[in-house]
From TrEMBL:
List of residues that carry N6-(pyridoxal phosphate)lysine: K210
Family the entry assigns: Belongs to the SelA family.
Domain of life per record: Bacteria
Names of required cofactors: pyridoxal 5'-phosphate
Name the record gives this protein: L-seryl-tRNA(Ser) seleniumtransferase
This protein's UniProt keywords: Pyridoxal phosphate, Transferase
GO molecular function term, any single one: L-seryl-tRNA(Sec) selenium transferase activity
InterPro entries the record matches: PyrdxlP-dep_Trfase (IPR015424), PyrdxlP-dep_Trfase_major (IPR015421), SelA-like (IPR018319)
Higher taxonomy: Bacteria, Bacillati, Bacillota, Clostridia, Halanaerobiales
Species name: Halanaerobium saccharolyticum
Pfam family, one: SelA
Length: 373
């Protein structure tokens, strides 16, 4: 059997979070079982997408659901759906969209690296607001006959410059425009799965490979049936914009299973494990002279999910002899490879994707690095 070991691919201890670069999350056995079972027979992909969507919509008590090849694929499909609808002639033109209704209004403070998926599908962004503020009249004023929809990026909801989702939905709906919400990494808490559709968002996107712990290459789209049908028309397996965003039957069954498990999971027990792990690391690392450690919850924007405790470590370069970025790189060097993130002021330890016991390996690695110096 080919193994990571045989290939020389190193194991990572993931104290960073559900980063795509670090392979997202780990699937449960039940998810893998469902995938294996799914692999044993042929099915019609369209039927499977429709029926898995209906099943998930039923579980979540929302109007409609659709599995996609990731949240970013969902952004692209949403864009195609808003521009071309289920008009086959228009669908086939994408991503070329000159002359079509192809404008998407977005707050400047909501632009982010994932929104290229909108551009990829033929969307043109029309930005409103600035780094300090955005007004409702800017949204009203930007609407014209070429406007196809409004994008909203949940993480930026925390920025002062952002209008609230509620306000955006109210104005957009007054102009009959759909609101597409990127909530890819907004779990936990599990209530967020339905929060944004219940607020009236027309399409809400989640990653299947982050907290849901489905296949890494999967995503979940929730929203209005009529719009999701248009996404499906522009998506795999049809010859359309979404054709390269392929979804196998195993992935579809894997994510469906992962969502069902997620809804029945003891979220409190997960939180307790994260707290135990951060408490342990805090106790073991707090006396290191070069560290100033705070145990808490992120309050700054762009550190999601905010519901998980973190260690925020300030590193005294004078005492340690190197800075926090160098420490981060040393942690990632040689096995056991420990991956952590840094922000402007801290080295961050996030327990979200830690396996039980890995907190001990992390502490040892820190101590080994500091002792060596
Ligand atoms: C991870 C992420 C995405 C992309 O999700 P995939 O499922 O990896 O395609 C999009 N937007 C945000 C905010 C994300 O965090």
């Amino acid at each position: 059997m080919v193994t990571y070991n045989k290939l020389g691919v190193k194991k990572i201890i993931n104290a960073a979070g559900t980063y795509t670069k670090y392979s997202g999350s780990l699937m449960k056995e039940e998810v893998l079982d469902a995938m294996k079972k799914a692999s044993k027979q042929f099915v019609d992909i369209d039927e499977l997408l429709t029926k898995s969507g209906q099943y998930i919509a039923g579980l979540l008590d929302v109007e409609a659901a659709l599995i996609t090849a990731g949240a970013a694929a969902g952004l692209a499909l949403s864009t195609a759906a808003c521009i071309a609808g289920n008009n086959k002639y228009l669908s086939r033109q994408l991503p070329l969209s000159d002359g079509l209704k192809n404008e998407f209004i977005v707050m400047k403070s909501h632009r982010n690296p994932y929104d290229q998926a909108v551009i990829t599908a033929g969307g043109k962004f029309v930005e409103i607001g600035n780094a300090i503020e955005t007004f409702g009249w800017e949204l009203e004023g930007a609407v014209n006959e070429k406007t196809a929809g409004v994008f909203f990026f949940v993480q930026s909801d925390m920025f002062r410059a952002s209008l609230t989702l509620k306000k955006i939905i109210e104005i957009a709906h007054r102009h009959n425009l759909p609101v597409i919400v990127d909530a890819a990494a907004e779990l936990p808490p599990k209530e967020n799965l339905t929060k944004f559709v219940n607020q009236g968002a027309d399409i809400v996107l989640f990653s299947g490979g982050k907290d849901l712990r489905g296949p890494q290459s999967s995503g979940l789209m929730l929203g209005r049936q009529e719009l999701l049908d248009k996404c499906r028309a522009n998506g795999y397996p049809n010859h359309a914009l979404g054709r390269p965003m392929k979804l196998d039957k195993e992935t579809i069954m894997g994510l469906t299973t992962a969502i069902e498990l997620y809804l029945n999971e003891d979220q409190k027990a997960r939180m307790e494990q994260w707290e135990e792990q951060t408490d342990f690391m805090y106790e073991k690392l707090k006396n290191i002279e070069a560290f100033e450690i705070e145990l808490g919850y992120p309050d700054q924007p762009l550190t999601q999910p905010a519901s998980i405790p973190r260690l925020f470590i300030e590193v005294d370069e004078e005492i340690l002899g190197f800075n926090k970025e160098q420490l981060r790189d040393k942690l990632a060097q040689d096995e056991p490879v420990v991956i952590v993130e840094t922000d402007k002021n801290h080295l961050l330890i996030n327990p979200h994707m830690l396996q039980r016991g890995e907190e001990k390996i992390i502490v040892k690695k820190f101590k080994d690095i500091i002792k060596e110096e």
